[in-house]
Amino acid sequence: MQQPLGRRRLLAGVTGLVAVGVLAGCNETDDSSTPDGSDPDGSGGTDPAAEELDLREANVVDVAVEASGRSYDFDVTLHHDDDGEDGYANWWQVERLDGTELGRRALLHAHSQQPFTRSETIEIPDDVDCVVVRGHDQTDGYGGQAMVVTLDSGATQAIDQGPERQPVDETDCP
């Protein structure tokens, strides 16, 4: 006579099946784009996710923002080749469109896991509804990708700030 499965054995088996299903889903490909990253309709536009980032720069690749009273909680994800050079991404900052700094999150060491996310709560004046989040590298300074963020909606727009901080105006706000 066969013994009924114990609760632990049953849960372990179900967990294993779920893990296999999740891992199998990671191998699916998206056939909606062409090999060169352009739109399948032939419009010639490139998929932003397919663009190569210069990992010598402190690239801001994602920003999540949530209001917390008069302050905002920023979760900023940077992608930088911290292990590939002597310098590392040493901070990110939130600033007004005119470049005035509103707050900064210092990064005190290299991060071997890439990309990585760090958080900071920053007080934002009532008259500001769109900000720029920029990364900074210890060796190369500014560069790479920055994000423009609309605070009310949390919508983001990636911009290439180049080797020097580029001006941002209201038309860049998502």
List the helices and strands and how they pair.
Elements: H1 7-25, E1 59-68, E2 71-79, E3 89-95, E4 101-106, E5 116-123, E6 130-137, E7 145-150, E8 156-160
Antiparallel strand pairs: 1-2, 2-5, 3-4, 3-6, 6-7, 7-8
Could you provide a short overview of the structure?
This protein is 11% helix and 34% strand. The protein has 174 residues and is mostly beta strands. It has a domain at 55-172: Sandwich (Immunoglobulin-like), CATH 2.60.40.
Give a written overview of the molecule.
The chain is mainly beta and 174 residues long. The chain has a domain at 55-172: Sandwich (Immunoglobulin-like), CATH 2.60.40. It contains one helix and eight strands. A hairpin with a 5-residue loop joins strand 7 (145-150) and strand 8. The longest helix is centred in the N-terminal third of the chain and has 19 residues, at 7-25. The chain starts with 6 loop residues before the first helix and ends in a 14-residue tail after the last strand. The model is unreliable at 1-50 (pLDDT under 50).
Low-confidence stretches: 1-50
Percent strand equals: 25-35%
Q: CATH topology of the domain at 55-172, anyone? A: Immunoglobulin-like
Gross CATH architecture of the domain at 55-172: Sandwich
Strand segment count: 8
What is the CATH first-level class name of the domain at 55-172? Mainly Beta
| Average pLDDT metric | 73
The strand line-up of the biggest sheet is 4-3-6-7-8
Q: For the terminal residues, how far apart are their CA atoms?
A: 66 Å
